[in-house]
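ok trying this again, last paste got cut off
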Amino acid sequence: MLHYNQQEVKMDHLEKYIVKRKKIDPKFAKGFEEGFEKFKIGVMLRQAREKAGLSQEEVAQKIRTKRTAISRIENHAEDIKLSTLHKVSLAVGRHLKVSFV
């Protein structure tokens, strides 16, 4: 007997919807991809901070800013400066690598 996690089933439906919608709506596809890339940066920063075992407050102190600024970066990283990314990466013990693909 197969058991499915309810979250996995919901995600499967969501992924199917996104694939279908992207095929029929180029404007949605472009907006989705751009939005996802922006969202992904914030997620990567949060994951790096958590892996380093640091709180938002601790990272903020290291880069001389407020905890709310770190929260904003993690949740809305769409317009983050490269210099800020560099500071945060160093604060969590990582190196920033930028590439053009």
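PB: full thing came through this time. The radius of gyration is 17 Å.
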